[in-house]
Protein backbone atom coordinates (compact mmCIF):
# COMPACT_ATOMS: atom_id res chain seq x y z
CA UNK A 1 0.00 0.00 0.00
CA UNK A 2 2.81 2.39 0.86
CA UNK A 3 4.50 1.64 -2.45
CA UNK A 4 1.25 2.39 -4.30
CA UNK A 5 0.89 5.69 -2.44
CA UNK A 6 4.44 6.76 -3.30
CA UNK A 7 3.82 5.72 -6.91
CA UNK A 8 0.73 7.92 -6.98
CA UNK A 9 2.72 10.86 -5.61
CA UNK A 10 5.45 10.26 -8.21
CA UNK A 11 2.99 10.36 -11.12
CA UNK A 12 1.31 13.45 -9.70
CA UNK A 13 4.63 15.32 -9.69
CA UNK A 14 5.46 14.03 -13.18
CA UNK A 15 2.12 15.45 -14.34
CA UNK A 16 3.07 18.82 -12.85
CA UNK A 17 6.43 18.65 -14.65
CA UNK A 18 4.68 17.98 -17.98
CA UNK A 19 2.37 20.93 -17.39
CA UNK A 20 5.42 23.14 -16.92
CA UNK A 21 6.29 22.74 -20.60
CA UNK A 22 3.14 24.75 -21.45
CA UNK A 23 3.69 27.54 -18.91
CA UNK A 24 5.74 30.73 -19.42
CA UNK A 25 9.52 30.55 -19.01
CA UNK A 26 11.97 33.23 -17.97
CA UNK A 27 15.72 32.74 -18.31
CA UNK A 28 18.44 35.10 -17.11
CA UNK A 29 22.05 34.87 -18.28
CA UNK A 30 24.89 36.94 -16.82
CA UNK A 31 28.50 36.66 -18.01
CA UNK A 32 31.44 38.84 -16.96
CA UNK A 33 35.17 38.48 -17.57
CA UNK A 34 38.07 39.64 -19.68
CA UNK A 35 38.81 38.98 -23.34
CA UNK A 36 41.96 39.22 -25.49
CA UNK A 37 41.55 40.25 -29.14
CA UNK A 38 44.68 39.05 -30.89
CA UNK A 39 43.66 40.01 -34.42
CA UNK A 40 43.82 43.72 -33.58
CA UNK A 41 47.05 45.72 -33.93
CA UNK A 42 47.97 46.24 -31.22
CA UNK A 43 46.11 43.38 -29.41
CA UNK A 44 43.45 44.53 -27.03
CA UNK A 45 42.60 43.10 -23.61
CA UNK A 46 39.33 44.48 -22.34
CA UNK A 47 36.71 43.69 -19.70
CA UNK A 48 33.68 42.06 -21.25
CA UNK A 49 30.08 41.56 -20.17
CA UNK A 50 27.18 39.73 -21.75
CA UNK A 51 23.77 39.80 -20.00
CA UNK A 52 20.43 38.61 -21.36
CA UNK A 53 16.86 37.99 -20.22
CA UNK A 54 14.50 35.85 -22.32
CA UNK A 55 10.77 35.40 -21.68
CA UNK A 56 9.08 32.68 -23.78
CA UNK A 57 5.59 31.25 -24.00
CA UNK A 58 4.43 28.30 -26.07
CA UNK A 59 1.34 29.11 -28.13
CA UNK A 60 0.89 25.88 -30.07
CA UNK A 61 2.89 22.80 -28.98
CA UNK A 62 0.93 19.65 -29.69
CA UNK A 63 3.54 17.17 -28.33
CA UNK A 64 3.79 19.06 -25.01
CA UNK A 65 0.00 19.28 -24.67
CA UNK A 66 -0.49 15.57 -25.34
CA UNK A 67 2.32 14.71 -22.93
CA UNK A 68 0.55 16.68 -20.22
CA UNK A 69 -2.67 14.83 -21.07
CA UNK A 70 -0.84 11.49 -20.96
CA UNK A 71 0.75 12.21 -17.59
CA UNK A 72 -2.63 13.30 -16.21
CA UNK A 73 -4.12 9.97 -17.28
CA UNK A 74 -1.22 8.04 -15.79
CA UNK A 75 -1.68 9.94 -12.52
CA UNK A 76 -5.37 8.95 -12.54
CA UNK A 77 -4.36 5.34 -13.21
CA UNK A 78 -1.91 5.45 -10.29
CA UNK A 79 -4.70 6.78 -8.07
CA UNK A 80 -6.95 3.88 -9.08
CA UNK A 81 -4.13 1.42 -8.46
CA UNK A 82 -3.55 2.90 -5.00
CA UNK A 83 -7.23 2.48 -4.18
CA UNK A 84 -7.06 -1.09 -5.52
CA UNK A 85 -4.00 -1.83 -3.38
CA UNK A 86 -5.78 -0.54 -0.28
CA UNK A 87 -8.87 -2.63 -1.10
CA UNK A 88 -6.73 -5.72 -1.69
CA UNK A 89 -4.83 -5.13 1.56
CA UNK A 90 -8.10 -4.88 3.50
CA UNK A 91 -9.40 -8.05 1.86
CA UNK A 92 -6.15 -9.94 2.50
CA UNK A 93 -6.07 -8.75 6.11
CA UNK A 94 -9.67 -9.81 6.69
CA UNK A 95 -9.08 -13.19 5.06
CA UNK A 96 -5.95 -13.73 7.15
CA UNK A 97 -7.83 -12.85 10.35
CA UNK A 98 -10.64 -15.27 9.48
CA UNK A 99 -8.11 -18.00 8.64
CA UNK A 100 -6.43 -17.52 12.02
CA UNK A 101 -9.80 -17.51 13.78
CA UNK A 102 -10.84 -20.67 11.94
CA UNK A 103 -7.60 -22.41 12.91
CA UNK A 104 -8.10 -21.31 16.53
CA UNK A 105 -11.67 -22.66 16.61
CA UNK A 106 -10.54 -25.93 15.02
CA UNK A 107 -7.83 -26.27 17.63
CA UNK A 108 -10.25 -25.63 20.52
CA UNK A 109 -12.85 -28.07 19.19
CA UNK A 110 -10.17 -30.66 18.53
CA UNK A 111 -8.86 -30.36 22.08
CA UNK A 112 -12.35 -30.89 23.53
CA UNK A 113 -12.94 -33.82 21.18
CA UNK A 114 -9.61 -35.38 22.19
CA UNK A 115 -10.57 -35.11 25.87
CA UNK A 116 -13.86 -36.87 25.21
CA UNK A 117 -12.14 -39.61 23.24
CA UNK A 118 -9.61 -40.06 26.04
CA UNK A 119 -12.47 -40.63 28.46
CA UNK A 120 -14.06 -43.06 26.04
CA UNK A 121 -10.73 -44.87 25.56
CA UNK A 122 -10.33 -45.25 29.30
CA UNK A 123 -13.87 -46.61 29.59
CA UNK A 124 -13.40 -49.05 26.68
CA UNK A 125 -10.03 -50.17 28.03
CA UNK A 126 -11.55 -51.00 31.41
CA UNK A 127 -14.42 -52.88 29.76
CA UNK A 128 -12.01 -54.78 27.53
CA UNK A 129 -9.93 -55.75 30.57
CA UNK A 130 -13.10 -56.98 32.27
CA UNK A 131 -14.15 -58.91 29.16
CA UNK A 132 -17.14 -56.64 28.44
CA UNK A 133 -15.93 -55.72 24.94
CA UNK A 134 -13.38 -56.88 22.42
CA UNK A 135 -9.79 -55.58 22.21
CA UNK A 136 -10.54 -54.58 18.59
CA UNK A 137 -13.02 -52.00 19.85
CA UNK A 138 -10.32 -50.56 22.11
CA UNK A 139 -7.86 -50.36 19.21
CA UNK A 140 -10.48 -48.65 17.07
CA UNK A 141 -10.99 -45.92 19.68
CA UNK A 142 -7.21 -45.67 20.17
CA UNK A 143 -6.82 -45.07 16.44
CA UNK A 144 -9.40 -42.30 16.60
CA UNK A 145 -7.46 -40.67 19.43
CA UNK A 146 -4.26 -40.81 17.38
CA UNK A 147 -6.08 -39.32 14.41
CA UNK A 148 -7.40 -36.45 16.53
CA UNK A 149 -3.89 -35.78 17.88
CA UNK A 150 -2.59 -35.61 14.32
CA UNK A 151 -5.38 -33.18 13.45
CA UNK A 152 -4.46 -31.06 16.48
CA UNK A 153 -0.84 -30.91 15.37
CA UNK A 154 -1.92 -29.74 11.92
CA UNK A 155 -4.26 -27.18 13.50
CA UNK A 156 -1.43 -25.78 15.64
CA UNK A 157 0.78 -25.43 12.59
CA UNK A 158 -2.05 -23.79 10.63
CA UNK A 159 -2.70 -21.35 13.47
CA UNK A 160 0.97 -20.39 13.68
CA UNK A 161 1.15 -19.87 9.92
CA UNK A 162 -2.08 -17.85 9.89
CA UNK A 163 -0.88 -15.61 12.74
CA UNK A 164 2.45 -15.06 10.97
CA UNK A 165 0.65 -14.14 7.75
CA UNK A 166 -1.62 -11.77 9.68
CA UNK A 167 1.41 -10.14 11.28
CA UNK A 168 3.02 -9.71 7.86
CA UNK A 169 -0.07 -8.01 6.46
CA UNK A 170 -0.98 -5.78 9.41
CA UNK A 171 2.35 -5.36 11.21
CA UNK A 172 0.85 -6.53 14.53
CA UNK A 173 -0.25 -9.75 16.16
CA UNK A 174 -3.73 -9.66 17.76
CA UNK A 175 -3.83 -10.39 21.48
CA UNK A 176 -7.14 -12.22 21.04
CA UNK A 177 -9.15 -13.55 18.12
CA UNK A 178 -12.80 -12.51 18.36
CA UNK A 179 -15.55 -13.02 15.81
CA UNK A 180 -17.56 -9.81 15.77
CA UNK A 181 -20.81 -9.14 13.98
CA UNK A 182 -20.13 -7.57 10.61
CA UNK A 183 -22.40 -5.61 8.34
CA UNK A 184 -23.88 -7.57 5.47
CA UNK A 185 -22.53 -6.25 2.19
CA UNK A 186 -25.01 -5.87 -0.67
CA UNK A 187 -24.24 -8.45 -3.32
CA UNK A 188 -25.40 -8.53 -6.93
CA UNK A 189 -28.26 -10.92 -7.56
CA UNK A 190 -26.33 -13.17 -9.91
CA UNK A 191 -23.08 -13.49 -11.80
CA UNK A 192 -24.37 -11.48 -14.76
CA UNK A 193 -25.10 -8.45 -12.57
CA UNK A 194 -21.70 -8.85 -10.89
CA UNK A 195 -19.96 -8.88 -14.28
CA UNK A 196 -21.69 -5.66 -15.31
CA UNK A 197 -20.72 -3.97 -12.05
CA UNK A 198 -17.14 -5.18 -12.38
CA UNK A 199 -16.78 -3.76 -15.89
CA UNK A 200 -17.83 -0.31 -14.64
CA UNK A 201 -16.38 -0.22 -11.11
CA UNK A 202 -13.53 -2.71 -10.81
CA UNK A 203 -10.33 -0.77 -10.06
CA UNK A 204 -8.07 -3.07 -12.06
CA UNK A 205 -10.23 -2.69 -15.16
CA UNK A 206 -10.54 1.07 -14.59
CA UNK A 207 -6.76 1.44 -14.28
CA UNK A 208 -6.15 -0.62 -17.43
CA UNK A 209 -8.61 1.50 -19.42
CA UNK A 210 -7.00 4.73 -18.25
CA UNK A 211 -3.55 3.45 -19.22
CA UNK A 212 -4.92 2.57 -22.65
CA UNK A 213 -6.17 6.16 -23.01
CA UNK A 214 -2.72 7.36 -21.95
CA UNK A 215 -1.17 5.24 -24.71
CA UNK A 216 -3.53 6.91 -27.20
CA UNK A 217 -2.36 10.31 -25.95
CA UNK A 218 1.26 9.20 -26.35
CA UNK A 219 0.58 8.18 -29.93
CA UNK A 220 -1.07 11.53 -30.68
CA UNK A 221 1.87 13.31 -29.10
CA UNK A 222 4.36 11.55 -31.38
CA UNK A 223 2.13 12.34 -34.35
CA UNK A 224 2.09 15.98 -33.26
CA UNK A 225 5.87 16.14 -33.69
CA UNK A 226 5.23 16.46 -37.43
CA UNK A 227 3.34 19.71 -36.81
CA UNK A 228 4.98 23.13 -36.39
CA UNK A 229 5.45 24.57 -32.91
CA UNK A 230 4.56 28.21 -32.35
CA UNK A 231 5.69 30.43 -29.51
CA UNK A 232 6.52 34.01 -28.58
CA UNK A 233 9.78 35.35 -27.14
CA UNK A 234 10.61 38.68 -25.55
CA UNK A 235 14.30 39.21 -24.86
CA UNK A 236 16.72 41.92 -23.86
CA UNK A 237 20.47 41.64 -24.33
CA UNK A 238 23.17 43.89 -22.97
CA UNK A 239 26.81 43.43 -23.88
CA UNK A 240 30.00 45.37 -23.32
CA UNK A 241 32.99 44.99 -25.66
CA UNK A 242 31.43 41.89 -27.16
CA UNK A 243 33.46 42.11 -30.39
CA UNK A 244 36.73 42.74 -28.59
CA UNK A 245 36.69 46.49 -29.14
CA UNK A 246 35.27 49.14 -26.91
CA UNK A 247 31.53 49.09 -27.60
CA UNK A 248 28.23 48.82 -25.75
CA UNK A 249 25.10 47.17 -27.15
CA UNK A 250 21.55 47.01 -25.79
CA UNK A 251 19.06 45.03 -27.85
CA UNK A 252 15.37 44.39 -27.07
CA UNK A 253 13.32 41.99 -29.22
CA UNK A 254 9.76 40.67 -29.39
CA UNK A 255 9.47 37.79 -31.82
CA UNK A 256 7.09 35.06 -32.93
CA UNK A 257 8.95 31.76 -33.24
CA UNK A 258 7.84 28.95 -35.54
CA UNK A 259 9.73 25.66 -35.46
CA UNK A 260 9.00 23.26 -38.29
CA UNK A 261 10.54 19.77 -38.07
CA UNK A 262 11.69 18.54 -41.45
CA UNK A 263 14.01 15.57 -41.02
CA UNK A 264 15.12 13.70 -37.89
CA UNK A 265 16.05 10.27 -39.17
CA UNK A 266 12.57 8.79 -38.87
CA UNK A 267 12.66 8.61 -35.06
CA UNK A 268 9.26 10.31 -34.66
CA UNK A 269 7.63 7.85 -37.05
CA UNK A 270 9.21 4.91 -35.22
CA UNK A 271 8.09 6.26 -31.84
CA UNK A 272 4.55 6.71 -33.17
CA UNK A 273 4.52 3.08 -34.30
CA UNK A 274 5.95 2.00 -30.94
CA UNK A 275 3.16 3.89 -29.16
CA UNK A 276 0.61 2.14 -31.38
CA UNK A 277 2.09 -1.25 -30.48
CA UNK A 278 2.07 -0.29 -26.78
CA UNK A 279 -1.58 0.67 -27.07
CA UNK A 280 -2.41 -2.71 -28.62
CA UNK A 281 -0.47 -4.43 -25.82
CA UNK A 282 -2.53 -2.62 -23.19
CA UNK A 283 -5.72 -3.55 -25.03
CA UNK A 284 -4.73 -7.22 -24.92
CA UNK A 285 -3.88 -6.92 -21.21
CA UNK A 286 -7.24 -5.27 -20.55
CA UNK A 287 -9.07 -8.11 -22.28
CA UNK A 288 -7.08 -10.64 -20.25
CA UNK A 289 -7.89 -8.79 -17.01
CA UNK A 290 -11.59 -8.75 -17.86
CA UNK A 291 -11.58 -12.48 -18.64
CA UNK A 292 -9.82 -13.27 -15.36
CA UNK A 293 -12.26 -11.15 -13.34
CA UNK A 294 -15.23 -12.78 -15.07
CA UNK A 295 -13.76 -16.19 -14.26
CA UNK A 296 -13.25 -15.22 -10.60
CA UNK A 297 -16.83 -13.93 -10.38
CA UNK A 298 -18.30 -17.10 -11.86
CA UNK A 299 -16.16 -19.24 -9.54
CA UNK A 300 -17.21 -17.18 -6.51
CA UNK A 301 -20.90 -17.48 -7.31
CA UNK A 302 -20.53 -21.21 -7.96
CA UNK A 303 -18.90 -21.59 -4.54
CA UNK A 304 -21.65 -19.46 -3.01
CA UNK A 305 -24.33 -21.73 -4.46
CA UNK A 306 -22.44 -24.80 -3.30
CA UNK A 307 -22.13 -23.32 0.20
CA UNK A 308 -25.87 -22.80 0.35
CA UNK A 309 -26.47 -26.39 -0.71
CA UNK A 310 -23.99 -27.68 1.88
CA UNK A 311 -25.52 -25.66 4.70
CA UNK A 312 -28.28 -28.19 5.42
CA UNK A 313 -25.93 -31.16 5.45
CA UNK A 314 -23.42 -29.32 7.64
CA UNK A 315 -26.20 -28.45 10.07
CA UNK A 316 -27.23 -32.13 10.25
CA UNK A 317 -23.62 -33.13 10.76
CA UNK A 318 -23.22 -30.69 13.64
CA UNK A 319 -26.39 -32.00 15.24
CA UNK A 320 -25.06 -35.54 14.94
CA UNK A 321 -21.75 -34.53 16.54
CA UNK A 322 -23.65 -32.89 19.38
CA UNK A 323 -25.52 -36.11 20.04
CA UNK A 324 -22.25 -38.07 19.96
CA UNK A 325 -20.76 -35.70 22.52
CA UNK A 326 -23.80 -36.11 24.76
CA UNK A 327 -23.54 -39.89 24.45
CA UNK A 328 -19.88 -39.75 25.45
CA UNK A 329 -20.73 -37.65 28.46
CA UNK A 330 -23.49 -40.05 29.51
CA UNK A 331 -21.01 -42.92 29.22
CA UNK A 332 -18.57 -41.01 31.41
CA UNK A 333 -21.23 -40.30 34.04
CA UNK A 334 -22.38 -43.91 34.09
CA UNK A 335 -18.80 -45.08 34.55
CA UNK A 336 -18.31 -42.74 37.47
What does this structure look like?
The chain is of the alpha+beta class and 336 residues long. It is built from 6 helices and 4 strands. The chain has a 4-stranded antiparallel beta sheet, with no helix packed on it. Helix 1 packs antiparallel against helix 2 (62-130), helix 2 (62-130) runs antiparallel to helix 3 and helix 2 packs parallel to helix 6 (267-335). The two termini are 60 Å apart.
Number-wise, the strands total 4
Q: Give the overall silhouette.
A: elongated
Major sheet summary line? 4 strands, antiparallel
Helix and strand composition category:
alpha+beta
- Rg over CA atoms, rounded to whole Å, is 39 Å
Task: Report the portion of residues in β strands.
Answer: 15-25%
Q: Enumerate the spans where pLDDT stays under 50 for 5 or more consecutive residues.
A: none
Strand arrangement across the biggest beta sheet: 1-2-3-4
Helix content: 55-70%
Individual helix count: 6
Mean pLDDT figure: 81
Task: Kindly summarize this structure in a few lines.
This protein is of the alpha+beta class and 336 residues long. The chain has helices spanning 2-20, 62-130, 135-170, 191-201, 203-224, 267-335; strands at residues 25-37, 44-60, 229-240, 248-259.
